[in-house]
Sequence to fold (392 residues):
Amino acid sequence: MSELGDIRNTGLRGVTVASTRICDVQGEAGKLIFRGFLVQDLAEKASYEEVVYLLLNERLPTREALGRFKAQLSADRYLPDSLIAALKTSPKDALPMDILQAAVSMLAPYDPDIRDTSREACTRMAVRLIAKMAVIVAAWHRIRNGQEPLRALEELDHGANFLYMLTGEKPDPEVGRFMDAALVLHAEHSFNASTFSARQVASTRAHLYAASSAAVGALSGELHGSANVRVMEMLQKIGSMDRVEAYVNQVLDAGDRIMGLGHAVYKTDDPRSFILGPMARQMGERIGETKWYDMAKRIETVAKAAFKERKGHDIFVNVDFYSAPLYYAMGIPVDLFSSVFAVSRIAGWVAHILEEKFADAAPKAALYRPASDYIGDYCGPQECPFVPTDNR
Fold:
């Protein structure tokens, strides 16, 4: 411990920084609510486009409004030629999230509304960026593999289009629906690290692309958006069902974490896992390989029992645990899992950016500026006397 004492970092846990109409995470009850609707109902009954419309407009669309909104997304599902050219000059081994963050920033100069600060202009920018996020991720994957990016197909919905642009094959309706549901489940989660980053940047009156780029940067961190990457790496490391129990005990003996278990908010299983788990099983059955789902299910059973026995309390499944085997069975490369998260979460980010900028109840200059406790440097809490360079 330093002579000055430990530096404290609460991560703002338990601190309410703003009010919101967008999302409610009820950790004790295991509920996730988007603008009044349970996420399970949305994932099972609504399309991703409907949920995006809900997040942006505070209500579900009529059939006519949904048709217009889907046409708007379809029209914006392309990238400027110069951005494609820039992607082609990028190192092929670049981290996908770095490419995505850079591409989001590079879109700003091409947006015709970039200097318009009205809500209407920012909403148009939001729709354009939602449409283009999937295109960026798919285009980069093809470019890094020496292939040409594919144009989206008008007849496919957002999730199915993403899989088509990524793989070059039109998914059948069931797989497209699985992708759509996964996007709905990841679309929003209140003031998580990336969303808070987006709102903090938006509070400075920076434009939507700057705030969204900051959110991508936050999501790229190991403790936020790459947990399902770690889950899949864990499954691959274990390798077979007969090694699960030994692995769980080894991790717990070492005091380490089992990826995909535990959550900062939920005190029960993540409600999204109840939909992702069955989809992961069904996708495994479709491709004739349920190994990864079966292993995940076994880890869940063994780990929950071990936690109860060793620590006297329960451990719960989070959203990343079953999204990993689901995406893997869909043929999505593991290093793109975080990018797929961003393809979905952009809807929540831009909804929060719009709320930060334009909510009626928001102060006109609510610049985020938290306080800190200065505990001193090596001189202690008093000022340091300046010593000339030759005398130090």
